[in-house]
Amino acid sequence: MPEATDVTDHGGGVWSIPVPIPDNPLGHTLVHLLDTDRGPVLIDTGWDDPTAWDALTAGLAACGTDVSAIHGILVTHHHPDHHGLSGQVREASGAWIAMHGADAHVVRRTREADPTLWLDYLAEKLAAAGAPEDHLAPLRAARAEGRTDLPGGRAALPDREIAPGRLLDLPGRRLRAIWTPGHTPGHVCLHLEEAHPREDAAARGHGRLFSGDHLLPGISPHIGLYEDPADAHRTDPLGDYLASLERVAALGPAEVLPAHQHAFTDAPARVRALLDHHQARLENLRALLAAPLTPWQLAERMEWNRPWPDIPYGSRNIAVSEAEAHLRRLVNLGRAEPVPGTDPVAYQAR
Ligand SMILES: [Zn+2]
Ligand SMILES: [Zn+2]
Description:
Layout: E1 8-9, E2 14-20, E3 28-34, E4 41-43, H1 50-62, E5 72-74, H2 80-83, H3 86-93, E6 96-100, H4 101-112, H5 115-128, H6 133-144, E7 160-162, E8 175-179, E9 188-192, H7 199-202, E10 208-212, H8 237-251, E11 255-258, H9 267-288, H10 295-301, H11 313-332, E12 336-338, E13 347-349
Parallel strand pairs: 4-5, 5-6, 6-7, 10-11
Antiparallel strand pairs: 1-2, 2-3, 3-4, 8-9, 9-10, 12-13
Helix pairs in contact: 5-6, 8-9, 10-11
The chain binds zinc ion (ZN) (2 copies).
C-alpha cells in the first residue's frame, strides 16, 4: 500500500495527494483536493492504473474523506496523468467531470477515432515533416495488422464544460478558470481568489493558482502542434503558450500549486525564466536554419535530454512535433520561411 502520509495539507481546505505515474521519470501527479460546501472537489485525478488508484483512495482517506464523497472533478487538461482516473472516480462517487471545451473535443475525437485513419494521419504528418522511411515503417505495419490499441481511446467523456474567465459553481469558494492554451488547446489553470491562509504568504500576492502542467517549478512543459486530423486551421501552440504564461504572471498569485514536482512562490519570476528559455531556444533554432532543414532534420539537431539516436521511437514523434511548433512560431514572427519547391517542406531563416 502507498504511504498515505505523503499527503500535504496546504491550509484553507486545500490538500495535495501524490499519485504515482508508472514507469515515468516525472514520478507522480499532484492531485489537489478542495473542500466546498457541497463536498470535496478534485483537481485532476491521476494515471489510470491500480497502484495510482490505491494511492488516490488512501490519500483521500488521509485527508479525512472518501472517494465516494467526491462532489466534482475539475480537469486541467486531457492528458492521461491528469484525466486518467476521472471515469473511475465518477463511477465510485457520481461526481461530475468538468473540462475546457477544446480538450473535451480532443477526448471525444480520440474515443471516436478510427484507428486506421489515425495511423494514416500520423504517417502522413511524419512523412510531411521529413521522417525517414525506417521511422514510418512501424506505423505502416501497425496499420496492416489492424492494431487498435490507441492510447486515450477509453478516456472518460466530461459532462460539464469549464467556461474560461468565469467563477466555477463551487458553493463556498471563489475559484476562477483561466484558459491557458499551449501545452494542450484546452488547458486551464484555476485561480483560488481567496486570501492565502498563511498571513506571511498572503502579503506576497493574490490567492493561489492550481497551474496543472502550464507552470511547473523545474520543468518546461512539452509544446507540440495540436493534433487534429479534421482541423486545417494553422494553430500556433507555442505562441498560445507564451501568451498564456504572461496571463498567469499578471494574476500574481501568492503561491502556485502545480500538478508535478512541488508548490512554489514568485510565479512572475518563473514565467520570466520560461519566456527567456523559449526566446533563447527560438534564437538557437533560427541559427540552425542558416541552411534549409525539414522539421525532422531540425529535431535531430535540437538539444534534447539525450543524443538523438538514444531517443525512443514515441519520444521522437513528440520531439518532431515540438520542432514543428517552434518553426510555426518563427514563421509567424517573420523569422523563418518555407523554401519554395521543397517536398517535404524545408525551412530557412529570414
Ligand atoms: Zn500534460
Ligand atoms: Zn502532466
